[in-house]
User: Fold these one by one.
Assistant:
Number 1:
Amino acid sequence: MEVEKGKTFKYLREKRDVSQEAKDNLKSFNQIKKTILDLLKESDLTVDQLTQKIGMPKNEVVFYLMSLVKFGFVQTGAIDDMDEYFSYKLKK
Amino acid sequence: MQEQIKEASYDVLVIGGGIAGGEAALNLANNGFKVLIIEKDLSIGGKMILLSKVFPTLDCSACITTPKVSEISRQPGITIFTGSEVKKIIKKTENSFEAEVLKNPRYVIVEECTACQLCEQACPVVVKDEYQFNLVGRKAAFIPFTIASPKVAAIDIGNCILCGACEKACPPKCIDFTQEKEEYTIKIKSVIIATGFKLFDPLMIPRYGFGLFKNIITSMQMERQLAPTRPFNTILRPGDGKVPCKVAYVLCTGSRDATIGNPVCSQICCMYSIKQAQLLMGALPMADVTIYYLNIRSFGKGFEEFYEQAKGMGVNFIKGKIGRISEKENGNLILRYEDINENKVKETEHDIVVLSVGVIANRDAATLFPDEQLKLDAFNFINQTDPLASPARTSIEGVFVAGTASGPMDIPDSILSAGSASAEAMSYLIQNK
Ligand SMILES: Cc1cc2nc3c(=O)[nH]c(=O)nc-3n(C[C@H](O)[C@H](O)[C@H](O)COP(=O)(O)OP(=O)(O)OC[C@H]3O[C@@H](n4cnc5c(N)ncnc54)[C@H](O)[C@@H]3O)c2cc1C
Ligand code: SF4
């Protein structure tokens, strides 16, 4: 079968199913990303503040927030007076 | 010379492209032998390529590993298959073998990828990044890590949703979802097993609370936090993003412990913990680092001085056996331990606990030879049948072992062991010409 270069994903889509887990994972990440970015639009926030607003375990907030920093959506802001917790802000 | 079978027959098959396998392959190729490296990961370099600095010199690990892996991948006598596995090896004649090799699809045309990372940016899927030991996410279309070799994208097909975003974003159009598994039959004259070691899984010691308490991490996770290509902007507790102040190391996690089936010393954890403690004091000048140990094994050249240097910098050493770790509401951890010198049970609070996990045998090679018996030692490492006169020799004639596949050792000893393996393989090849 002739497969057009640059569109080979269509070929594999016909041959294999995308797992439900992968689809669910994407859906959940997109929701969390939107929630975090919307909250950071309003003001800079710490992990603790984000946790209280989202109601998600702190370690999960750290994971998603750090991933958003890595992918260039969020940047690290100032550290508190005790030099313990950073706040995070949207990357302009 | 990446990812391309140039010949169906080689002088030597090296299984595992860590520092030991890479060094052995390089020695052989520099002496005119044709070598095929089979690496199961997406990059060669093994654990060393992911380290921060190395003890006792504190040289930057990436600065040593990068030129080495580049030399290995550019050497014309070496062919490398990444993302591949050896299924079985059959001894055909007195001095020849045939290996069945499976190359998994990367879904990227290696020769055409420029590592521009546009596929990574376009991919919407985020999963845990195994190269950062799950501290942060990565995409399903991803370059394993900055100094990976080959530095080429790969598609994690299990997590891919086949949306085609990466393919649309790729300027040289090198994403190729039509790639399939490829099987090869490789004729070889000799084999070097360099499959390295596995890290002890601390979930096997539930009283330490790893997995349950999020501010308990492994030494490999701390290694990543200390590396220049670290997951966070500085050292942070993964449980709540706090910059830790009081750091504890628990040595011998999964080593010298008959209750979890590994009564031997891992040989590296004392020194890598002392290294990390020194690096931590540089990264967090206000930090207070305590190392809980049974004995400090500082047996190598410069190791004792390195240990003294850590003490001089203010690292606190407590000869103590940890009974249990519990968590406070603020995420801090209480270590309950027996102070061996004072013969008292004590409790101390720390912000973060690093478990210095030990070295466990990788048993992958044990089943590769259906018609021969590859002997393992009492701890499931590959048995060296003549450790003094011929340290790389195994129970199968023509099959040699290099690096931590034969037991716990550090990088200089792994390189030395690779030297023995390549020298013994060369001598075997010359004798059996
Ligand atoms: C936290 C930590 C810090 C350390 N710090 C230091 C330090 O500062 N200084 C020092 O000297 N040492 C240090 N070490 C030890 C060092 O990592 C090892 O000595 C070194 O990595 C051993 O190299 P190796 O090639 O034998 O094994 P590995 O690094 O384990 O490489 C083995 C390779 O084989 C591949 N492989 C495994 N199974 C298969 C298979 N079935 N088929 C194909 N390929 C396979 C693996 O993917 C890997 O690429 C540290 C170790 C740890 C855990
Ligand atoms: S090297 Fe140190 S920490 Fe590791 S097992 Fe041996 S004594 Fe324990």
Number 2:
Amino acid sequence: MTGIYNMSTHQLDTQRLLCPLPVIRVQDKIKELNNGDLLEVVCTDPGTMNDIPAWCRINEHLLKEKKEQNHQYLFLIEVVR
Amino acid sequence: MTQKKAVSLISGGLDSLLATKVIQEQGIHVEGINFFTGFCVEGHTHAIRKKDKQKQKRNNALWVAEQLNIKLHIVDIVEEYKSIVMNPKHGYGAHLNPCLDCKIFMVKKAHEWIKENNFDFIITGEVIGQRPKSQRKETMPVISGKSGAGDLLLRPLCAKNLPATRPELENWVDREKLYDFSGRSRKPQMSLAEQFELEDYAQPAGGCCFLTDENYASKLSDLWKFRGNREYELDDIILLKIGRHIRPKPNFKVIVSREEGETRFLEGYKKQFIYLHSISHKGPLTLIDGDEISDEDLLLAAQITARFSQGRTADQVTVEIIDKKQQSKEVTVKPCHPNDILNDWYL
Ligand code: SF4
């Protein structure tokens, strides 16, 4: 995946995965990251538009951006510990 | 007393929501755990099919966790779960649902989780008599015993019908404030939901997974029968939820997309399967799942593809066939007549 926001952020490609797998991948990736790290995620399951924001709210991480672009759903999450 | 901590098995339905709420009300810190088996009914096909775009696509377990204001840990158990589905010690329910083994397995995983995370006990939303196979008075101790959780497994909705567990005996929770629900009626749950002022909750009709679905189970049986074993990969079980599955011959079946969303999804499998699509008319994407595919088989698959294209009544439809090495050839075929696709071929 090419950097959609900033090349210094961590990236996660969950294209073709169906919910809840994108959420599981985000959850597992964020376990490896530190406070303040940014994670950009690309998904193709439209369900992620609800699920990833919900997961961020529950786990108190900051969803800085979500957008839809050519059947892709893109998220930028800031890790909060 | 330090605050006790419980993990709750969250399915996304009402019962686990209520069980969690009951325990939270007693001042216990609760976090949720949800297991992804690969068969979960969570919007998969809804997410793909365009016609279902308007349907609610939320993940019920996440939604429940948000209502309860608890953390939710979603655990991928796809690999470990295979042995449960392929070889359940306690057998299947009405279809291919190994509910009792499944419950034992999930409680066992939750028990491992509480040990790793220093939690004190496990709660589930089980109710005696709610499900004919897995939620009976006799199966409750089987689940506690075989999972290894023993008396650390508390079922708040029917606890009063069962022997007291450690959280009750040690007064971590007040048994008097637990419930004695039993049977198939949903009324007690509905009235408790009303008491908690919960109005919007999921009421899954056919249980929590595709294994309880007759049509899905018959496609899975077919897959096992023609492969000659019960092994499966995640892609296999996801593909069973998508498209029309038609088996014209024992050595292969075709998966034909029903609309644009499914076509786009099946495109992701182009490298794993021989695939076909009509080039003279708009139409579906077809994957061929099978072995030793002959030229005659390819022609039949092309005719089926043409049948579901906009050229279905045309004399001839040109179909492109691309093999796994991405080499392509074109064939011109007469679309199958609907009667040529026998009812038995549809899985
Ligand atoms: S319906 Fe499926 S997930 Fe639920 S207990 Fe049965 S096998 Fe397990």
